[in-house]
Write a structure and sequence with these properties.
Layout lengths: L9 H14 L6 H17 L7 H6 L1
Amino acid sequence: MKEIEVIIDTEEIAEFFYNELTKRGYVPGEDELGELADITFDYLLNKCIIDEDLEFEDNE
């Protein structure tokens, strides 16, 4: 299987959740969105869908 580089941005995940939840009639707060984004990121790590690149974080 070919390896590709994917950058996961938790702010982008939070925005996605906000848009999807508001379409469904929910109005989540900023804190809840941040938690959902962090949980989603942790889920992707746990399922080995992504690897955390600590080197990338150091360069920001």
